[in-house]
Amino acid sequence: MNLILLFDDDFIAPARVRLSDRRYAHIRAVQQPEAGQTLKVGLLNGAIGRAQVLRVDDQSIELETCLDQMPPTALPLTLILALPRPKMLKRTLQTIATMGVKKLCLINSYRVDKSYWSSPLLADAAIREQLLLGLEQAGDTQVPDVSLHKRFKPFVEDELPAIATDTRALVAHPYEASECPPAEQTLTTLAIGPEGGFIRYEVEKLQQAGLAPIHVGQRILRVETAVPVLLARLFPPL
Amino acid sequence: MNLILLFDDDFIAPARVRLSDRRYAHIRAVQQPEAGQTLKVGLLNGAIGRAQVLRVDDQSIELETCLDQMPPTALPLTLILALPRPKMLKRTLQTIATMGVKKLCLINSYRVDKSYWSSPLLADAAIREQLLLGLEQAGDTQVPDVSLHKRFKPFVEDELPAIATDTRALVAHPYEASECPPAEQTLTTLAIGPEGGFIRYEVEKLQQAGLAPIHVGQRILRVETAVPVLLARLFPPL
């Protein structure tokens, strides 16, 4: 937790918050705060800044906030990801939030196990929990938008062309692909397949929707490695 | 498993192997092979190629191998990593093997919990198991060399300067650092700290050993994200 995310409900007066939940427990255990100390904070979907510890006891902590900075720059990206298995989904949601992805479409694919779609980790609250952990890690406040698309064909035929239009539209695919283009802070659409990859039919449908196949070298990466590698290659550090 | 790693012991005749262990079970379950089919294989620390299924039954599979290609290019890198917590170590060992790191030094740091050094995951066989999984994922055969350095100061003072000499020597550190240099296939030494980062004293010692601090943007990344991001930024896709 490199930033304490604050919610409107936390405010007991202007610029004054009281925390008594997970965040309080974490601050207490890790940072052992004393009155006068400052902590890094940010308002959910808002500004970031510092907060001074006013009071801390066995129940709660009170902070005086000064939120005067912009959160880190977002990636200008719509990431389309074949739904990973639940354990990997959890980590991937944290990773994409940490790296600054603000739009994630989780889609079906031939090699996505059907059971993944009934995972309790796909509940709104469960997704949000992982995203907030990722934001706290990065020092960001802007919650990514995550949408679920249980049917591949309607998504790719009816929704993807509009998403991809006028963007750098790419699908990560190790075969018959061009080398990954250089890092650029430009509007991008990127599709990443499941373990084992998209099947040929799916790659063809993605190409028809305007996505060009790219690869990042000879090595086959797991999804949880492919995501940070592709984002690092496609966007400059900001 | 995108490549089946073969060992000298597997050969029952020249260019002929019989498998009956984890690899057999995996091939059986995932690839449902039939006689005549070809699979991707590689000899441990040797060449890669294809193997034709000669025979498969309830106990074992026999393959005829043709190992005529070089494994993927390695990263010209010595990676120095503060020992991560055991669960993250497991994944990180797989990731570095997948990405082509061939020299990893796991070191101590102020923020490394002492208990991590007694994890059973640090046994030679346990480390090797994770590395082989990473190689099988990537399609590589060259096992990385992993060394353990339980004392920070002797390693950084006595061993690191020689490792770093005549290489692009860097320490990932988010503060008072230059931007990550561009991707280049050049001899590199890279140190990555623990969760929470190296402390100031450690960064100074690393700088005295010749390492220059670099950052990859404003966001603070977890170690398991920082590793693929830094490797993707520092080396071109090969």
Overview of the molecule:
Chains A, B: This is Ribosomal RNA small subunit methyltransferase E. Chains A, B: Pfam families: Methyltrans_RNA. Chains A, B: It is found in: Cytoplasm. 2 copies of one chain form a homodimer. The first copy, chain A, has helices spanning 22-31, 86-99, 124-138, 152-164, 200-208, 223-234; strands at 4-6, 11-13, 16-19, 38-43, 48-56, 61-69, 77-82, 103-107, 145-149, 168-172, 178-179, 188-192, 212-215. Chain A is α/β, with parallel strands linked by helices. Chain A has 2 domains: 4-69, Ribosomal Protein L25, Chain P; 77-234, Alpha/beta knot (3-Layer(aba) Sandwich), CATH 3.40.1280. In chain A, strands 9-8-7-12-10-13-11 form a 7-stranded parallel sheet, with helices on both faces. In chain A, helix 2 packs across helix 3 (124-138). The two termini of chain A are 20 Å apart. The mean pLDDT of chain A is 96. Chains A and B meet through helix 2 and helix 6 of A and helix 2 and helix 6 of B.
